[in-house]
Design brief:
- The complex is a heterodimer of chains A (about 675) and B (about 190).
- With about 675 residues, chain A is an alpha+beta fold.
- Chain A is built from 22 helices and 21 strands.
- In chain A, the strands form five sheets. A six-stranded antiparallel β-sheet of chain A has the order 1-2-3-4-6-5, with helices on one face.
- In chain A, helix 6 (about 175-195) runs antiparallel to helix 10 and helix 21 runs antiparallel to helix 22 (about 515-520).
- The radius of gyration of chain A is 32 Å and the shape is globular.
- Chain B is mainly alpha-helical and about 190 residues long.
- In chain B, helix 1 packs antiparallel against helix 2 (about 15-40), helix 4 crosses helix 6 and helix 5 crosses helix 8.
- Chain B starts with a helix and ends with a helix.
- Classes of the chains: A alpha+beta (about 675), B mainly alpha (about 190).
- Chains A and B meet through helix 1 and helix 3 of A and helix 3, helix 5, helix 6 and helix 8 of B.
Chain lengths: ~675, ~190
């Protein structure tokens, strides 16, 4: 294929992962071709002015703007425009009167021309049913969508006479707890929408208006459903303009939205935006400076949102210039040092949990977020914790503690526990046997005397009760075993035992809180399970640049993984070696990888960083039987190693039924 | 004009020499048209290359005799000619900067509506020569889009291609040219 053909194909792929895979496949080992296509794509997506427009001017042959701008007293369908109440990148907002079927005052959001208005309305129609189901005091309703004669689409919604939430808080100098209580109301509204299957996608202060009802501030979330309707297919080349126009200020959008890779956007994108909003309510600034973000074009913008960790709210407050610091204090009826103190701990953690780049680590629901803030307000411990890799790893480790590290007391407790469960298992087996006997007896009786039908029925009922009883006993015994398995760090066995007690159709669900508790414990906080091999990993090592991970297995195999791509690259030892464990170690200085797969020691070097997929060349290979000289090792039977790369990656090998590699952020 | 029409017919009939003769002829035609137009315009008015090319085409196809078969040939030639005109202007501008003086050209830069700096035009032109060797269609599209200012739809109609095809070729060509220009600027091979 030519460079052009590959480029065309690549453009048709909307997600960067799939595109990467396609390029890898197509270019294969042809490094030059790959580099050239990469450069082309980079140029294509870069946002510079060179060749952006024709070198010559031309008179517009198509009238782009409607000649007649909308004006007061003009009728748009059933709506009479009264007064322009807002203007933004998207278009204008008008106050209008609706005459029929009901008389009411509404807000009309008229979108700028130049969008695919029909499609926009079609997308809105698609979600209309869901939008209609939203009924919440803190959500402004959307009534209608249509197109003006000039082709401009407009949305008709409940008129909210309020000011944006950040301005409201500052104008009224609301102290932090009051801001939090107002924010909880917003969370509740978002939760309601999420339950109806609606994602807002554009939560920002200007979309949350606060009005006073009898002196009580009531926030209203507006513009539900509009972001989705106005978002075009993002494979378009006009991404940048659309981006500015419709995603508005980038300070509130989640990394997955900024990516615009076609990745499904779910409710957790809203959680991110809520976090950014909370940040601003607490500190008076957004996590990232919007102007700063837009400066470097869309690529650097994406990079910031995807990679840069925002400062914690309390830290941000400390770094503000003097004037802004004082204002932040005054706006919250306190002084800055007290404010910093208020934010440190709980609130820092809560905000940062919302702003996690990885959405699986944010709050699952808006309710969860609201509940944590509520906990903070009543001084209960919050769920959010410092999101450090070490902390997460420690938690996972605690749950999967190895036997050898436990004290004698634990061992004793285990033995006792084993005894109990074995006894319970025996009892369960006995009960099953007696149930079978009862069944047999019942059959005999039926044969013997049909007249005793009634009695036999009673007997049968008893027998089935007895079976039920035995199931209960078995359940109790196996829950106990599951717990033991967990203590022995045998995650696979524990999961299997738990799975056995998921009820079959028609069976009674015996599972109680203990099942859920244990099930919870079997969930790992690992971000990714890289692989599941029926053997144990014995050694892991990151390349110095963090791009590659080598894993040595008990059966002698050594695997190489691509860390950012979470992708298996290749097995380095492709021969059948004796059943001796593989060990790996990257040199900390150069891209040199040493691997043992007894009795061999291999030394490999990565020949080029640019090269993708990376190829490793054998530098040396020697028969060396003494693997002890090769790096530190620990007894294989309890193989549990961690390797950490300065930064965000941690890897662990857990012993279990299966060899598992967990990957942490 | 009839000479031009005849040439178009000859190309259609498969005469290889006709193609070579077409470009200079269209070039002259466009210049003449520009000069005539400018004589009738008020001072300070500028000429839109797109309009010029369209007008030239209307003159040829105006009587309805010319069917669409010739259109692609004409627009290819016309965009090549327009590129030549613009490059002439850009070069002259460069020479002016270096102290040469310019007298009495009827079609000087102030009368053609150019929005890109002449340095850019010349750099694109140089890179375009290379692109033409590898991807002739993409290069044609660049001439129409960049040097004439035609829209994707107009180019698609002129070349009888799907707009999507034109759009993708334009995207490719643009990335290709940018890459080439950047490489030559950074002094790399």
């Amino acid at each position: 294929m030519t460079e052009r053909e590959i480029f065309f194909e690549a453009l048709d792929i909307s997600t960067s992962e799939v595109r990467e895979a396609y390029l890898r496949n197509t270019c294969g080992q042809n490094v030059t071709l790959r580099r050239k296509v990469d450069e082309l794509l980079k140029e294509h997506f870069s946002n510079d002015s060179l060749l952006a427009a024709p070198a010559v001017e031309r008179e517009p042959t198509i009238v782009l703007e409607s000649p007649a701008e909308e004006g007061p007293a003009q009728m748009l369908g059933r709506y009479k425009l009264l007064e322009k109440i807002g203007e933004g990148g998207f278009g204008e907002v008008w106050m209008a009167d609706q005459r029929e079927p009901v008389k009411r005052r509404v807000a009309l959001k008229i979108i700028k021309l130049g969008m695919d208005s029909r499609q926009m309305v079609a997308r809105f129609e698609a979600e209309r049913q869901a939008l209609a189901m939203m009924e919440h005091p803190n959500i402004a309703k959307i009534f209608d969508a249509a197109v003006t004669e000039a082709g401009r689409p407009y949305f008709v919604m409940e008129l909210v006479r309020g000011i944006k939430i950040t301005a409201f808080c500052d104008q009224n100098q609301l102290p932090t707890p009051d801001r939090l209580r107002l924010f909880i109301l917003v969370c509740n509204a978002i939760q309601h929408a999420h339950q109806k299957g609606i994602i807002h996608r554009d939560i920002k202060p200007s979309n949350i208006l606060v009005t006073l009802h009898d002196g009580v501030p009531v926030p209203k979330v507006i513009d539900f459903g509009i972001a989705k309707a106005t978002q075009q297919e993002l494979t378009d080349k006009t991404v940048f303009t659309q981006f500015q126009q419709f995603i508005g200020t980038p300070a509130y959008i989640s990394p997955e939205q900024a990516e615009m890779s076609g990745l499904d956007i779910d409710t957790r994108a809203d959680i991110y935006s809520l976090g950014a909003l909370l940040y601003e309510l607490l500190v008076g600034q957004t996590p990232f400076d919007a102007k700063e973000m837009m400066k470097g074009g869309i690529d650097s913008l994406r990079q910031i949102i995807r990679e840069k960790e925002p400062l914690r709210p309390s830290t941000k407050l400390n770094t503000l210039p003097g004037g802004a610091r004082v204002t932040a204090g005054i706006d919250r009826q306190t002084d800055v040092s007290k404010l910093v103190h208020q934010l440190q701990g709980d609130l820092d953690w809560i905000v940062m949990k919302c702003l996690e780049k990885d959405r699986t680590r944010r709050y699952d629901t808006a309710n969860g977020l609201a509940a944590d803030i509520q906990r903070h307000l009543v001084n209960e411990p919050v769920i959010a914790r410092p999101p450090s890799a070490a902390y997460k790893f420690q938690k996972a480790w605690q749950r999967n503690r190895l036997v050898f590290s436990a004290g004698a007391v634990v061992v004793l407790a285990l033995i006792a526990g084993m005894g109990v469960s074995t006894w319970q298992a025996i009892r369960a087996t006995e009960a099953s046997a007696s149930a079978r006997k009862a069944n047999a007896a019942e059959k005999e009786q039926r044969l013997a005397a049909q007249a005793e039908q009634q009695r036999a029925d009673a007997q049968a009922k008893k027998a089935s009760e007895s079976q039920e009883q035995s199931r209960r006993l078995l359940y109790a015994a196996e829950m106990n075993l599951a717990q033991q398995s967990l203590k022995l760090n045998n995650l696979g066995r524990a999961r299997r035992l738990l799975d056995q007690h998921k009820p079959q159709p028609g069976e009674e669900d015996l599972r109680g809180w203990e099942w859920r508790y244990l099930w919870q414990l079997t969930r790992s906080s690992a971000l990714v399970t890289l692989t599941n091999r029926p053997t144990w990993g014995t050694s892991v090592s990151f390349s110095p640049d963090g791009a590659h991970l080598a894993v040595g297995w008990l059966d002698g195999r050594v695997d190489l993984w691509d860390v950012p791509g979470r992708r298996w690259v290749r097995a380095l030892t492709d021969r059948e070696y004796d059943k001796h464990h593989g060990r790996v170690a990257f040199s900390s200085i150069r891209n040199l990888l040493a691997a043992t797969s007894e009795p061999k020691v291999l030394l490999l070097t990565r020949n080029s960083i640019m090269c993708h997929p990376p190829s490793f060349d054998h530098v040396a290979e020697s028969a060396q039987t003494n693997s002890q000289t090769f790096g530190p090792g620990i007894p294989v039977a309890f193989a549990a190693q961690i390797a950490a790369k300065a930064g965000r990656h941690l890897i662990g090998l857990l012993k279990g039924q299966l060899g598992m590699v967990f990957f942490f952020f | 004009m009839s000479e031009l029409t005849q040439l178009l017919h000859a190309i259609e009939a498969g005469d290889p020499k006709a193609s070579d003769q077409l470009l200079p002829l269209v070039y002259e035609e466009l210049r003449k048209l520009a000069v005539t137009r400018m004589a009738n315009e008020k001072p300070g008015q500028t000429l839109q290359p797109t309009a010029l090319v369209h007008e030239a085409w209307l003159k040829i196809a105006g009587d309805g005799q010319e069917q669409f078969a010739n259109r692609a040939h004409f627009f290819k030639a016309a965009s090549g000619a327009m590129r030549q005109i613009l490059i002439d202007i850009a070069r002259r501008k460069q020479r002016l900067k270096h102290g040469a003086n310019l007298i009495g050209d009827e079609l000087h830069e102030s009368r053609i509506a150019m929005s890109a700096p002449s340095e850019e035009l010349l750099a694109v032109n140089d890179a375009l020569v290379l692109l033409k060797l590898e991807e002739p269609l993409a290069a044609e599209i660049v001439q129409m889009r960049y040097f004439v200012g035609m829209t994707i739809q107009e180019i698609a109609a002129a070349l009888d291609l799907a707009p999507r095809t034109v759009d993708r070729h334009w995207a490719f060509a643009r990335a290709w040219l940018k890459r080439t220009i950047r490489t030559s600027l950074s002094g790399m091979p």
